[in-house]
Amino acid sequence: MDYSLLTIFSFFIGIVVGLTGIGGSSLITPLLIFVFQVPATTAVGSDVVAAGLMKVVGTVRHWQQQTIELEVVKWLVIGSVPGSLLGLVGFRYFQQNSSLNLDQWLPPIIGLVLMIVTVLAALELLISLFFPDLSPWSWPKLDLTTRSGQIKTTILGAVLGYLVGLTSISSGSLFALVLMTFFQLDSRKLVGTDLSQASILLTCTSIGHLGLGTVDWNLVLPIWLGGIPGVVVGARLSEYFPKNALKILLYTVLVTVSWRLLQPT
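and the corresponding structure tokens:
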């Protein structure tokens, strides 16, 4: 494997993440599976560990800028961390079940989750662009000062955490949709809050994958080497680029990737 090429790819993916706030695991996991022919189980585990540090770097920056809604993070994490551990249990079950080939079945699962996440995100973006006065989601906002709001937020976190534990996909994208749909956050706090919960979630999930032995440090280190500087560069460039146009391009790529993942091998 050409690890220098992986570093280069990771650098450009990092730029995309820095520019748009999404796309890390959604691009890296398929990249490892298709371009570098990494088994799906190893791709998922290595991506989780690599993405975890990238999210932590972003969280520190947003903490300094005071753009994190701690109450939202707290109640999401209360659900997402146990949910991700349950997802890891499912991951381990499929891995150990000799009658199931996880490396064969995992890519379509990832593809399905990625397709759903991308279509929902693209729909929200298109509605906001062409129908700015129309709210794309009609669900009521969650009030975290009430017990009901806290419970519902925890349940949402648990469901999404399970998907992250099983596939590594959507620690940022799907949670971002939840934050847009159910909470009144401005764009800066949305990104900071999303990064914060994802950093905690992926750190816990990373520990699980380390225990399962599905992490290849020969993959993680080149991803870090390229991805972290890429995120920094992307964040600096973000004020000069039209983010909506970049998101549309990214969603197009993600739909193509997810469609490929859904195809039988």
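(Above: one complete record from the training split.) The chain has a mean pLDDT of 83.
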